[in-house]
Amino acid sequence: MYGNDFSEPPEQPGARSLLDQVADAERDLELAAQQDRPTGTEDDYFMAVIAADQKIEPRDWMPEKYRKNLIRQIAQHAHSEIIGMQPEGNWISRAPTLKRKAILLAKVQDEAGHGLYLYAAAETLGVDRAELSDMLIDGRQKYSSIFNYPTLTWADVGAIGWLVDGAAIVNQVPLCRASYGPYARAMIRVCKEESFHQRQGYEILHVLSHGTPEQKAMAQDAVDRWWYPSLAMFGPPEGESPNTAQSMAWKVKRFTNDELRQRFVDMCVGQAEILDLTLPDPGLVWNEAEGRHDYTQPDYDELFRVIKGNGPCNRERITHRKAAHEGGQWVRDAAEAYAKKKAKVSA
Ligand SMILES: [Fe+2]
Ligand SMILES: [Fe+2]
Fold first, then answer.
1. Phi, psi of 95 (to 5 degrees)
2. Rounded to the nearest whole angstrom, what is the distance from the C-alpha of residue 111 to the centroid of ligand 1?
3. Could you tell me which residues belong to the region Disordered (predicted)?
4. Distance from the CA of 88 to the center of ligand 2, in angstroms?
5. Please, which residues have CB less than 5 A from ligand 1, an ion?
6. Cβ–Cβ contacts within 10 Å for residue 13, how many?
7. For residues 174 and 187, what is the distance between their CA atoms, to the nearest angstrom?
């Protein structure tokens, strides 16, 4: 077992690995595109496309609530990708070797790319990227609460890769089947890259936990701090998640927050054993009757505090993003001037 290369869990024969599930979704997406599209009036056409597991495309009619809901979700996702560059970017200049630095640089650049695919997907819904950027900076739109925690040691880069990117994949693999075409296609690419992120984090922790006692202690400390915030990434439990039911009816979301959180816990236990690290939950035990692990829920009051802007690094993250946005104004101006000049020449 290495990273997210799972052997089949004995309790779920036939279970597919996460990357296999991405490949399945990609194949089904291509097959569905070859089928005849349903016919009908706007409203029943929309539901018929969803029922047939085909994709709603930008040209299609869609209910205003579906469009708005998707913009909110995709924008929040895009913001998380680019804010997520900060905690790890913090370690690029302090990576322990040239090789580690090159890998981390590539990973952080991938996150910028994920942001880009997702902003582009959001724009197909008729919203302007500049507007989304403003909404992030002035707090009207959110990003994942996990990125408001600090990266204190090099081992945190490992813990983020293993746990945070790991949780992201568990969350995002089902989104490869989301009913909105541009989102589903972006997710297929993103998931393939996230799998590399998860492995690089796992490998950092594996090296540290099999190194000196100090290195092992540093790895354990990082896992102790990142475990519960990673569980909280799946969002509030059932009943407190306002958008779940509608999102599931529209086949944007396929599983509840709790189902995905459970899947993540079950996935991490075997990997933690190989890493020789302990997940910081004395209540974590195998439940034979249910075929899954029992575990302690994260502190959801803390989650809501962080979402409301009172996590350890919220202000720092937005201040940094704002400065980067303002610092990039000349690039946007130059690109616009160049586009105008080119249009004039070709006219
Ligand atoms: Fe990402
Ligand atoms: Fe990632």
1. -60, 145
2. 4
3. 1-20
4. 10
5. 81, 111, 114
6. 7
7. 9
R_g of the chain, CA atoms, integer Å: 21
Ligand minimally distant from the alpha carbon of residue 190 = 1
β-strands 285-287, 292-294 pairing: antiparallel
Q: Give 86 Cα–ligand 1 centroid separation in angstroms.
A: 12
Count CA atoms within 13 Å of residue 26 on its CB side: 14
- Each residue's pLDDT tens digit in the chain (347 positions)? 444 444 444 445 456 788 888 888 898 888 888 888 887 777 788 888 888 889 999 999 999 999 999 999 999 999 999 999 999 999 999 999 999 999 999 999 999 999 999 999 999 999 999 999 999 999 999 999 999 999 999 999 999 999 999 999 999 999 999 999 999 999 999 999 999 999 999 999 999 999 999 999 999 999 999 999 999 999 999 877 777 788 888 888 889 999 999 999 999 999 999 999 999 999 999 999 999 999 999 999 999 999 888 999 999 999 999 999 999 999 999 999 999 999 998 87
